[in-house]
Amino acid sequence: MTSLATPRVGVVLFPGSNCEQDCVRSFRALGAETEMIWHGEKSLPDVDLVVLPGGFAHGDYLRTGALARFSPIMTAVEEHAAGGGLVLGICNGFQILCEAGLLPGALRKNVGLKFICAWAELRVENADTAFTRRAQPGQVLKVPINHFEGNWYVDDETRERMVANGQIVLRYTANPNGSLEDAAGITNDGGNVLGMMPHPERACEALLGSEDGAVILGSVLDTLGLSSATSGVR
User: Per the residue annotation, which of 23, 91, 98, 204 is the catalytic one?
Assistant: First the structure.
């Protein structure tokens, strides 16, 4: 790793992904270097953050994220996360992270069994994470959602532990899909993996209706910059 370099973001491309270019555009606008990574690769390039974008990986056949979980690149993503590396899964990427066991729980079909494409308001429940450091506790962000299976579920014991640990990082102010705990975004125990159903990469320009997504994406880059300044390496 180079010293004090610009944060490098790797965006994984699965067959059926459709938000990868949005992620690349938004992270570049925020000052990061980005690189696309094909799902068939067996290793990651020199990146600080791995992003699993939204879309319909492998056509969402069988179960959302179930096939993508076995893509060759996922072994490297799991190793990256196990070593403390940052991972962000957005929408379909969130589903893949759950299927891969990098995040607890599963995403079920929305209550009402309807696909939802709308703006959502997210309340920041934990601003002391690698993904929310730009936010204030209780701050409400306007970020769009676009999914059919965003109804997050987990067993009661795990839910209670996650709530106590502050792992329910983002909550819907008006739950659109039935997600347990009104969860819109959750982290793993270590706080270095975030899965969220809303699309922050689609809310980074005022022209698109909101710049609030930059709070999330920019927080990650801030975290990487702080890590570099503290350790001298990335």
Answer: 91
